[in-house]
Amino acid sequence: MTESTAPDPAAEPTEEEVFEQKAVRLGKRERLIAERTDAAGGAYPVSLPITDTIPDLRARYGDLEAGAETGVTTAVAGRVVFSRNTGKLCFASLQSGDGSRIQAMVSLAGVGEESLARWKELVDLGDHVFVSGEVISSRRGELSIMVADWQIASKAILPLPNMYGELSEESRVRSRFLDLIVRDRARETVVARSTVNASLRETFRAHGFTEVETPMLQVQHGGASARPFVTHANAFDADLYLRIAPELFLKRAVVGGIDRVFEINRNFRNEGADSTHSPEFAMLEAYQAYSDYNGIADLTQELIQNAAVAVAGSTTVTWADGTEYDLGGEWDRLSMYASLSEAAGREITPETPLGELRALAAAEGVEEPPHVIHGKLVEELWEHFVKSQLTRPTFVMDFPLDTSPLVREHRSIAGVVEKWDLYVRGFELATGYSELVDPVIQRERFVEQAKLAARGDHEAMRIDEEFLRALEHGMPPTGGMGMGIDRLLMAITGLGIRETILFPLVK
């Protein structure tokens, strides 16, 4: 409870009203400048004698009985998100960056007639205000500061949006700074993301991994099948690519003896944007020498479960819509070809002719991918028949060889590679390999990819001679994985990708 009831939700101000409010607030700023007497000049103080934070005060004095006085003097600052002015007593809710609030009570007896009048004339919603005074609990039990001194730390020239209404999704992503001010969930998501990253690093550290950073500007794109962004470096007079994956550089690190290596950083793919895709996104990739796709699957499960516990306190997470989702236990592992055969009611193997796959796709209304090959169509058919049936977290194992140019062939099943995709919440969250370490076979795979590129496949890889030269110096058997950080937040929070990215790219 505050000292007054919250106003009813009102419509957002019109452009004309905003213009008028801005003009009034600019006038108040000019008055602040005129009143400054120190050498610094300007409208706002450079520093303030703050002694406490609002969260700290709430932690120490949040249980005060109504009407209690502490005799403790404090000095804090916060953004004004609620204000009510009366004759001899003004109330304001001050909000800190984490959303914690405390009430400021500015009274005639506490600050004097002139200071009270200045408060009423100068302070607006959205302003950052410094107050000092005694910590008390109001008659209604609201933790408060009985103000003895105050000053405006920074003036909001534009008004805040309605604090009691809902910003549209478009407004939230375009003006995230406002979203963070008015919506608890937005701030909680930022904290959750930071917590997830810290948890990932802690788990890696416990397993002896080293974190590195690899180039984002590359002379040749590789490490994934995706269309790159192209830029030009004036210093070198050469075209460069924003990286689509750090894989080929991280593998160089493994060749160099960093047996357990990971990176959390940005990737860029010049492709579509939807509820699970963003052209710019955060990616985790990790490689462990003398492991394989089974060992890296175990590690991935541990990484995700530890992150869930760090954020939610349990491997059972609650999504934004209230749904509970269980990330605990051992996750299912199923074969891509076997699960597709069962769902389609007919046997499909790596030897199934492309013509039969195309006929099945046509019968099911499955659109053929561009530059269709056996593996691409198998994966499209699997998504059509099987993907929607997955409810629990599931590792989908053993992919077609021709769509996985960086992956080792299966040790016992011809025509497939030791690759898995992890599906959580109906989308692909991570992928893992037994890495291809034979440079001779890798060159052959690159040549096949180059042929696809020559036929117009913009996602196909090019021959990377520097990477091949590194492999020729000997890379140990290795398991590797990649996981989108934004998608991991989606799995834990139930939010869409534009909500999990702090400042997503929008048109």
UniProtKB/TrEMBL annotation:
GO terms for MF: ligase activity
Record keywords: Aminoacyl-tRNA synthetase, ATP-binding, Cytoplasm, Ligase, Magnesium, Metal-binding, Nucleotide-binding, Protein biosynthesis
Start and end residues of each stretch annotated as Disordered: 1-20
Enzyme class: ligase
Enzyme Commission number: 6.1.1.6
HAMAP family named in the record: Lys_tRNA_synth_class2
Protein name: Lysine--tRNA ligase
Species of the source: Microbacterium awajiense
